[in-house]
Amino acid sequence: xxxxxxxxxxxxxxxxxxxxxxxxxxxxxxxxxxxxxxxxxxxxxxxxxxxxxxxxxxxxxxxxxxxxxxxxxxxxxxxxxxxxxxxxxxxxxxxxxxxxxxxxxxxxxxxxxxxxxxxxxxxxxxxxxxxxxxxxxxxxxxxxxxxxxxxxxxxxxxxxxxxxxxxxxxxxxxxxxxxxxxxxxxxxxxxxxxxxxxxxxxxxxxxxxxxxxxxxxxxxxxxxxxxxxxxxxxxxxxxxxxxxxxxxxxxxxxxxxxxxxxxxxxxxx
Length: 269
What we know:
Layout: H1 2-10, H2 12-26, H3 34-55, H4 63-90, H5 92-97, H6 104-130, H7 142-166, H8 170-183, H9 201-205, H10 209-221, H11 237-261, H12 265-268
Helix pairs in contact: 2-6, 3-4, 4-6, 4-7, 4-8, 4-10, 6-7, 7-10, 7-11, 10-11
């Protein structure tokens, strides 16, 4: 594994070129570019906030901030998972004819989405300043949480990228699975509301590492949300450690699996 990592380091300039290419293609022929990618989560935040606050009459202060803070890591996860399914097939000519570490493709895919996510975080901080909502001192954990998230997504990308070459049904399974997972993740509802359904539901929901990441972003960036009938929950350090362990385990397993089968990809694409 060390020799493969050294080989990947030798191609670091190629990784950056792939990242720049992905970003250029994403905003090709678009005047507003990055603004459009932020318009979608902002519109969803606005619509859901209106429904929750005005129609359903749920009193949750700064609810839009919690929504926006959850949509950002969720969108990062969705985009990275979807891009991972196609990253090898999109570069099939390179895979067939040029030698390079094949893991460069899912890595550059995740990195381009990570840069996009960091830009989105800047918009989030502006949004919080306008409300105004002041981040807590735990905001210093933001780089740590970003590393945990990228480790999980890179491991997942390595697994999905080679599986989709063997079985192209994988991308359809992922697309449908993401829709189901969205409603099992505390994105449109505060994690505190899970306790209403029973104390046993919280540990079950938080077994999902994406749920742990989304909730952790909310807890380190925002003050506790105060609901009328549910006490606010602090940052769950135990779940954060569990999420980190699962994320790095996913990365190790994904890297091992990808490297085991990567030289067969040229025969299949």
